[in-house]
């Protein structure tokens, strides 16, 4: 599959994106996201430098003609003005601005340190916007059991296996869709291909092994279009991300949780939370189980535990007694 940037990017930007793809082994999806972020910046720069009219349709501004001189002309104040533009004109939240900021800093760091095109990195001092750290939404233990008990129908073994893996292993929905039956190993582990094509091994507990075994006994074989796919749709295709999401929403709705913001990703949060709260799991171990790149991403689950401790203290019947 060809990357989006191959026909639309200017030469220096292509160099950077090929470096991310081939040397740093970033996935095509991730590389495309870098391209989209940097395309937005250089579209903005063309307007800022008066190379196109401010009335021109922003999403149709081409960047394949961006010159080396324009790239070199960028200053720190251009970057800060761009961050302001993302708030005022594009209504980007802090998370989106932080990602675009990181993309921009990565590009100019490459030009400075790897390509040696510029002697000074103009955006090295650009601060990444702080992201609001909201506690993740998750199902309680009781709700998780209720969700599993709600499974029925023609594909109950398949659906039960998927929900069990979500709730026990904390997979991303894209990882679930990408599973092959050959990823289930004889030593009771499962190979998972995560973000950035990073492989990790997840240990399967008795519930997972039982659910997968029951499903494999009824998994379709004849007419299957992707013979290695673990989870097969009713059309004999590999179950897509959207199909898995629809299945999860169906059961969430069945137990009355569909209107409360729950999703496949919330099942991942649920698995992580239950492991941390009930499993006496070190946060570094949890990081490896979930496939997080940074420990800071995983540490949010320690806050959940602290919040519960505070709630327990507040609910003590003596908490409101004062002298």
What does this protein structure show overall?
The protein has 323 residues and is mainly alpha-helical. The protein is 54% helix and 3% strand. Strands 1-2 form a two-stranded antiparallel ribbon. A hairpin with a 5-residue loop joins strand 1 (189-193) and strand 2 (199-203). Helix 2 (11-23) packs antiparallel against helix 3, helix 8 packs antiparallel against helix 10 and helix 12 (264-278) crosses helix 15. The longest helix is centred in the first third of the chain and has 21 residues, at 28-48. The radius of gyration is 24 Å and the shape is elongated.
Brief descriptors of the model:
single chain, about 325 residues, two-stranded antiparallel sheet, elongated
Gist?
By secondary structure, the chain is mainly alpha-helical.
The count of DSSP E runs of length 2 or more, i.e. the number of strands, is: 2
How are strands sequenced across the largest beta sheet?
Answer: 1-2
Q: Over the alpha carbons, how many angstroms does the gyration radius reach?
A: 24 Å
The residue-averaged pLDDT reads 84
Low-pLDDT segments, ≥5 res: none
Element pattern in H and E = HHHHHHHHHEEHHHHHH
Structural class: mainly alpha
Distance between the termini: 71 Å
Shape: elongated
State the helicity in percent bands.
40-55%
Into which percentage range does the β-strand content fall?
A: under 5%
The profile of the biggest β sheet is: 2 strands, antiparallel
Number of helices: 15
